[in-house]
Design brief:
Blueprint lengths: L15 E8 L4 E6 L5 E6 L13 H18 L3 E7 L5 H11 L2 E7 L17
Length: 127
């Protein structure tokens, strides 16, 4: 008895999705999700071929975002909402790369966490 060949799952790519960009000081991470939050494509400056300190450059962020945006456009995605997080140098470069890729942007939101008073300060130094 021969085993039956399993059918390969084909992902149905939606026309609308979200792009999450996390720009740290050392790297830029990009995730493309559907509207429910399921990750469809992921990328980073390291995955784009950059190592060491070159990962933290705006050019590395641009190339990482371009790869993800090109894959999304080839699969049929047209409109994206963008959520940017972090203070890294790749923030603005990533947005410019998405605009140049041909995907229409419906929303740009900054989701960087901001402390509302933060941690308790250290005790005063004695003289």
């Amino acid at each position: 008895m021969a085993k039956e060949a399993k059918k390969k799952k084909t992902a149905i790519f939606p026309e609308r999705g979200n792009i999450y960009i996390k720009a740290t000081f050392n790297n830029t991470l990009v995730s493309l999700t559907d509207e429910n939050g399921n990750v469809l494509i992921g990328g980073s400056a390291g995955k784009a071929g950059f190592k060491g300190t070159r990962k933290s450059t705006p050019y590395a962020a641009t190339s990482a975002v371009e790869k993800v945006a090109r894959q999304a456009r080839d699969q049929g995605m047209r409109e994206v909402a963008i959520f940017v997080q972090g203070p890294g140098p790749g923030r603005d470069a990533a947005l410019r790369a998405i605009r140049a890729s041909g995907l229409s942007m419906s929303l740009i939101a900054d989701t960087t966490p901001i402390p509302h008073n933060g941690v308790r300060p250290k005790k005063r130094r004695r003289a």
